[in-house]
Specification:
The termini are far apart. By secondary structure, this protein is of the alpha/beta class. The protein is built from 27 helices and 22 strands.
Length: 890
């Protein structure tokens, strides 16, 4: 039997390895969670060596594939080769690019969110998009990054869209370079592949690019993020391509002042656009909606005299003329200007005194004392400046080897507690970890027996040597965070926003760094290392002149209850600081192994070192120490006292160096609240005086004309008022009272003149008529128990008419009098004077009406006597009749 050999060729199928949390695609980079996917890959959050969070992108496709699967990967990989050398603050940096089993893996900065995400957040609140001023600040960063690519490297991004513009600490960085092309060496056949048609420039649809192509995309991004609507409404790539090439963009929702600049940036001809992306953004910023922002806040009320604060006497306020500015509600927008050079109070425009007080600061607390100090300082700043979220030029960082530090920081009050993003824990490692790596390097400065004293909790447990070891273990993570914080706090727009929010003008744009640390505990061992790390970070940011001030807590060294270990730590810390204050002795340190970063420096890294002691080891003394520290730092940072102290500090040191300083706050007080309250009382007093300064003799002619116009109304004639009262009574049960009385009198006369035998008995007829009269018009009291005047139908009808007429005229006269408030030169007393004129006119009318009433009363009395005389002459009948309503039988 012959054997048949069959060879089967199976295709090789490459499959991407499974990505899931806690796996390491690159050794040392542990995946945490997916962040999203895009047209070219999948992005995950990961933890890099040193515990720093990064973003890691896996590009779709495989470079080793034999088919078209490699196209996307090769395109992205080629683009990365072009941009990997780019370094710019507004271009997202890449840490490394690796090829893992044919897959392109990119490690890059971890952003907070994209502008697309930010737009969605604003839209959930009911707004169409990102506020204009804020958006212009963001796109200004993006424009600088895009201009840097084209001007220095001749590279075009070609995929500018909201999802590729990332926010990192309130700044925007351009990212996702999968389509980057070199302007001169690009392949014309590959331009169209992968573009986002909504934001693509017209020339890209013709497989051409221009140095102004990214500007076109940036203009569409601006309109999209601002209005929530796109300039072209095409549903597919074909429709959008035609619209980009031929249609006029829809700018109806764009502010009118922005339309010329946006239209120019969206020109079909690239040469007609702005010279650069930054020029386009500057043109938007120069439109009236931005440039026309008033530099003064004035609400001038007519008739009020403008005055300045200098006119007021503040002799009762401790003989000081320094007035702290009032809190100003922060205006929305990015990079606001400190343009409030005047304030107004109830219409009085006052020249505002703005002491140069505020400066940017980074406050670093180390260990338990550092945490407590930061919380006290935050509380004082909260009282002084208001919500610290509106003061971005002051930032806080808390370092602690204790892994429970976040829990302890969260126990404080909500307004002063540290948040998770402000805390860095630096715990030690198990002893076995140190044995496996760089043990020889560690034993150069760390006694070997110290390693065996590491507690199971991995805290420093009061050992200065272990405190320094904890810092050394986390050196890279801490220094990276320091650079980030210092870069953020030193941005000019942060200071401008804080200045606008607080009303304090800037004292210095250079930041100051405060370090709060205890010398009595183990964290004191990292003091010098931390100081030199701060100085190194400042030097890299060209801020070497920035002061670094340490506040070192030394406890109660004279208290007999102080443990010997704490005293030893204090002595070691002070001796160390004193030793390195002499520049003859150099400070040398290495971190992260023999090949890791090194520090070689001379002198202390601190501009000043303040020692803080307490008299006894009581909780009250400790709280007092923290209160003094918080008060001193707050006044130094946010009041004119800081400027004065700087001049004092420039005095020459004794013996060439001053390693230590002290301070006291017993004589340092800035009574801002008292000054403001006293100033407010005085200003209000002046306002009220200005109101009361106007009387009848100073009422302007325009007010008199208004009064004359009101009084000339013909409806105020007494006869017209009576007709109005009668008309208002017409819908009562009697109808029109005047017509009712006329009909009744006519009916009485008809009965009295009735001829023939049917004529009623005159006495009875008179009595009936008299009863009817009393029923209609009422009658006067006949005894003390009766009411003063008992009203009947006619009186009640007239009373309703009077009330309605009064309400109508009350409304009209009030409306007329309110117009006086808008007349220039009329204060509160002036309004009162005008009202007095109206009241006087009403009194004249009332006197005329009373005179007419008296005449009517006289006629009534005459008629009454005539009726009584006639009744007396009438023959008496069996039943007597009395004019007063009582009948007597005779």
């Amino acid at each position: 039997m012959r054997l048949l050999r069959i060879t089967v060729f199976l295709p090789v199928i490459r499959m991407s390895w499974l990505r899931e949390p806690d796996t390491e695609p690159i050794p040392g980079y542990k995946l945490v969670e997916p962040l999203g996917t895009g047209g070219f890959g999948e992005v995950w959050k990961c933890i890099a060596p040193g515990g720093i969070y990064k973003a890691i992108k896996f590009v779709y496709g495989n470079l080793d594939a034999a088919d078209g699967d490699a196209a996307k990967a090769q395109q992205e990989y080629s683009a990365l080769e072009r941009v990997k050398a780019v370094r710019h603050p507004f271009v997202l940096s890449m840490d490394r690019i690796e090829v893992v089993d044919g897959e392109v893996v990119i490690v890059m900065e971890l952003a907070d969110k994209s502008l697309y995400d930010l737009q969605l957040e604003y839209q959930t609140t009911g707004r169409p998009g990102i506020p204009r001023n804020l958006l212009l600040g963001f796109l200004s960063d993006a424009a600088e990054g895009l201009d840097h690519l084209i001007e220095k490297y001749n590279l075009l991004h070609l995929d500018v869209k909201p999802k590729n513009l990332f926010l990192i600490a309130d700044r925007v960085k351009v990212a996702d370079f999968g389509l980057v092309k070199h302007l001169e060496r690009h392949s014309q056949s590959g331009v169209l592949a992968g573009i986002t048609p909504v934001y693509a420039a017209p020339e890209t649809f013709s497989n051409k690019i221009s140095k102004h192509s990214d500007q076109y995309s940036l203009a569409i991004v601006y309109t999209d993020l601002l209005t929530g609507q796109r300039v072209f409404n095409g549903k597919n790539i074909r429709q959008l391509a035609v619209q980009h090439l031929t249609a006029v963009p829809d700018l109806s929702l764009v502010p009118e002042g922005d339309r010329p600049a946006v239209a120019r940036a969206l020109s079909k001809n690239p040469d007609e656009r702005f010279d650069s992306c930054s020029a386009f953004i500057r043109a938007l910023m120069a439109t009236p909606s931005v440039a026309g922002t008033p530099t003064r806040t004035q609400y001038d009320v007519p008739g009020f005299r403008k005055a300045s604060v200098a006119e007021f006497d503040f002799s009762e306020l401790g003989k000081t003329n320094v007035i702290g500015p009032t809190d100003v509600t922060p205006r929305p927008g990015f990079r606001p200007k400190n343009s409030f050079d005047s304030i107004t109070l109830s219409g009085v425009t006052a020249s505002r005194v703005e002491p140069a007080a505020l400066r940017p600061a980074l406050m670093i607390g180390v260990g338990t004392f550092g945490r407590r100090a930061l919380q006290h300082v935050r509380g004082r700043l909260l009282d002084r400046l208001g919500d610290l979220r509106h003061v971005p030029c002051v930032r806080f960082l808390y370092l602690d080897p204790d892994s429970d530090a976040p829990k302890k920081a969260a126990r404080a009050a909500a307004d002063v507690a540290m948040t998770d993003d402000q805390i860095i824990t630096t715990p030690l490692q198990p002893v076995t970890n140190y044995r496996r790596k760089h043990l020889d390097h560690l034993t150069e400065w760390l006694p070997l027996e110290k390693l065996y004293t590491i507690p199971r909790s991995l805290s420093v447990d009061g050992s200065r040597a272990l405190g320094r070891l904890a810092f050394s273990d986390h050196f890279l993570r801490v220094t990276a965070r320091l650079r980030h914080e210092l870069e953020t706090v030193s941005r000019p727009e942060m200071l401008a926003r804080a200045s606008t929010a607080t009303g304090l003008s800037a004292r210095d744009k250079t930041p100051v760094v405060y370090v709060f640390i205890s010398a009595s505990g183990g964290t004191g061992g990292m003091l010098l290392d931390l100081g030199h790390a701060i100085k190194k970070a400042l030097e890299r940011l060209n801020l070497s002149a920035a002061p670094v001030v340490s506040f070192v807590y030394v406890g109660a060294p004279h208290d007999t209850g102080t443990p010997a270990a704490e005293q030893a730590n204090v002595y070691a810390t002070i001796a160390e600081l004193n030793h390195f204050a002499d520049e003859e002795f150099g400070f040398t340190a290495g971190y992260a192994g023999p090949e890791g970063p090194r520090v070689d420096a001379r002198g202390l890294p601190f501009t000043a070192t303040y020692l803080m002691t307490i008299n006894d080891r009581s909780s009250t003394a400790f709280r007092d120490c923290l209160a003094h520290l918080a008060g001193y730092v707050t006044h130094d940072l946010t009041t004119p006292l800081g400027t004065l102290l700087e001049r004092v500090r420039t005095s020459p040191p004794v013996n060439g160096r001053v390693p230590f300083r002290g301070f006291g706050t017993f004589g340092v007080w800035y009574p801002r609240g008292l000054v403001l309250r006293a100033a407010a009382r005085r200003l209000c007093g002046r306002v009220i005086q200005s109101w009361l300064a106007c009387d009848k003799s100073t009422v302007p002619e325009s007010a008199n004309a208004l009064v004359e116009h009101v009084l000339a109304d013909p409806r105020l004639d007494p006869d017209a008022i009576m007709r109005a009262i009668v008309n208002e009574s017409a819908d009562g049960p009697l109808g029109n009272p005047e017509e009712f009385v006329t009909r009744w009198v006519r009916n009485v006369g008809d009965v009295a003149t009735t001829p023939g035998p049917g004529r009623p008995d005159p006495a009875l007829a008179a009595a009936a008529t008299w009863d009817q009269c009393r029923e209609i018009v009422g009658f006067e009291p006949t005894s003390e128990s009766d009411s003063p005047f008992r009203r009947a139908k006619f009186g009640k009808a007239l009373d309703t008419g009077v009330k309605r007429a009064v309400e109508n005229w009350k409304t009209e006269l009030t409306k007329a009098a309110r117009a006086v408030e808008d007349l220039p030169g009329v204060g509160l007393a002036g309004v009162q004077a005008v009202c007095s004129l109206l009241v006087d006119a009403c009194k004249v009318t009332l006197a005329n009406l009373e005179a007419r009433a008296d005449a009517l009363a006289a006629n009534r009395l005459t008629a009454y006597h005539a009726a009584g005389a006639a009744l007396a002459e009438w023959p008496q009948s069996a039943g007597g009749f009395s004019l007063f309503g009582n009948r007597a039988a005779k």
